[in-house]
C-alpha cells in the first residue's frame, strides 16, 4: 500500500475504530458459558486433551457430550481445545479472547475485500474510505455481540472468516487461481458450519457482475449463455470439493439437531424474519438471546405478505443496481445478505429466528449501505460547502459506530452470566417457554424454589411436552421436600424424553441421594447406555456402584472414563478402590480414598448402607485412631452393632458417643434401641 494521503487517513480511521472495538468489548472477556456451551465445552472431556485434535476430524462424538448434538464441526472443536490448553482450565477468558481475535482477523480481511470490490466501481480516493467505513460499521455492529458472546457460536465466526478469506484470495490474486489456493479455506470452513456452499453463489455473482460486467437482467439472454456456462465450469472444482467435504461431515452424524418445524410454514415465516434482520441492521434494538417467535401458520398472514413484498423488492433492487458499474457493489452486498440467510431459511430449525444468525449476512448489508451512502455523498458534494459537508459526514459516521459500540457494551452486560441473560430474555421474549424455564433454573440455583416453580408453571403453558422442563420441576420439588410430585415429574421427564440421558441421570442422582442406590442403579445404567461419553453420567454410575459394592462394574466404568480422559483423577481413584474393594469417598463430583477421620466415618456409612457392618466398625476404628474424640465414629459403631444384634457392644459405643457429645440424637436413639432389645 502506497503512503498517500488517502492511505494515511484510512489508517488513522482504522486505528480509531480498532480502539473503539477494544473499548466496546472490554467488558465481555470474562462472560460465562451459556446454552450449547455446556455440552460442547464445559462437559466435553475431549477438548481437555489437545492431543485429540486429529481425531476431531473423524470422530463426531468429540464435538459434544450429548449424543443428540454429535457432529463434525472439527475446526470449532480444535480451537476450543487450544483455548482449554492455553488457559489450563475452563477459564472463559481464553475462549472469549479466541473468538474476539477471529473477529478482528475477519475485519482485516473484510477491509481488503471491500476495497478490492469498490475499486471496480469507484475512482481513486473513495474505495479506501468506503471500505474502512463498511468494516468499522460491521465490526462494531451491536447485533454481532450476540455471536461473539456466545462461545460455541464461534462456528459462525470461523465459517464466515473462511468464506470471506476464500473470496478475498480469489479476487486479490487472479493470476494464482489455477493453483486453487482459494479452495483451501473454503474446505476448512465446512468443518466449522454448514454454510460454505454460499461461497459458490457469492463467487458466481461476483464474476458475473465485476469480471464479466454482466447486468443480472441480461443473464438469461441467449447471447450470454456461454458466459454463464463458463462461469459455472470455472467454479466447478470449488463446488465439488465443498460438496464432498460437506457430504463427509453430514454422513458422520445420524441427524441434524433442531430440525422440527414444518417446511412450508417455516420458509414463509422466514420472509418476515428477513424483514426483521434488515431493520435490525439499522436499528439493533430489542435483541434477545432466545426469541419467542414461532412459525406463522396462516399463509396469508399480513406478516408473510409484508415479507413476500420485501423479498420481491429485494430482487428488483438487486437487478436494477446490477445494471450500472457504480451501483454493482450494492447489488452484490444484497446478494450476499440474501445468500447468507438461505441455509437457515430453508432448513426448518426449531428456532424461527436467532440474532446470532445476522453475523454472516450483515457483511453484505454493510457493503450495500456504505456504497449507497458513498454515491449520495459524491452526488451532492457540490451542493454544500466542502469544508462543512465532509465534517458533518464524518461526524454522522462516528455517531453511528459509537452508538453501536455502546450497544455492544450493553449486550455484553446481558451476556455476563445466566441471571443477566435469562432475565433479559424473559423481558424481551415473554412468550418463550424455554426462556421462562431457564430463568426458573436461575431462581432454583439461587435457592428461591417457590419463584422457580412459578416460572416453570408459566413455561408449561408454552412447552407442555418439554422433557427438560419436567426435569427442572422435579428438582424444584425435591428441594421443596415434595417427594410425590418430584417422582411424578421425573417420570414425566422420562416419558416426554425417552432418549434423553439427562432425565435418567438426574432421577438416578435423586434416588441415590435419598438413600435408594439399588433403585437408582438401573436409571444410571440407562443414562450410561444412552450417553457413554458424559463424565457426569460416569461419575454418578460409579458413585452408585460404589455404594452397592459392585466392584466389577465400578472398575469397568472407571476404565472407560480413563480411555476417554487418561489423566482423570476420579477414574484413577475409582479403579484403585474397585481393585482393593475399598469404597471411595465421594465429595460432590470428586472422588478420594479415605485419609482423614471424617473420610473414615463417611466410609463407615457406605459399608453400613450395603450391610457390611464389621467393615463399618473397622472404618470407625480407623477414624478413632486419628481422632479419639469423634462422637460420630462411636455413633456409627453403635449402629453397626445394633444391626448385628450385639446389644452390649452397641450400648457401650453409644454411651461413649454421648459422653463426648450429649446432643448426639442418633447415638441416643441407638442406645435406647439397644437397651430395649437387651431387656426383651
Task: Name the beta content range.
Answer: under 5%
What is the percent of helical residues?
55-70%
CATH topology of the domain at 430-568: Serine Threonine Protein Phosphatase 5, Tetratricopeptide repeat
Q: What characterizes the major β-sheet? A: 2 strands, antiparallel
Please state how the strands of the largest beta sheet are arranged side by side: 1-2
Radius of gyration over alpha carbons?
Answer: 32 Å
Q: Please give the alpha-carbon distance between the first and last residues.
A: 103 Å
Shape summary:
elongated
- In the CATH hierarchy, what is the class of the domain at 430-568? Mainly Alpha
Uncertain ranges: none
Q: Got a strand count?
A: 2
Structural class by sheet pairing and helices: mainly alpha
Which CATH architecture of the domain at 430-568?
A: Alpha Horseshoe
Average predicted confidence as pLDDT = 93
Tally of alpha and pi helices: 31
The CATH superfamily name of the domain at 430-568 is: Tetratricopeptide repeat domain
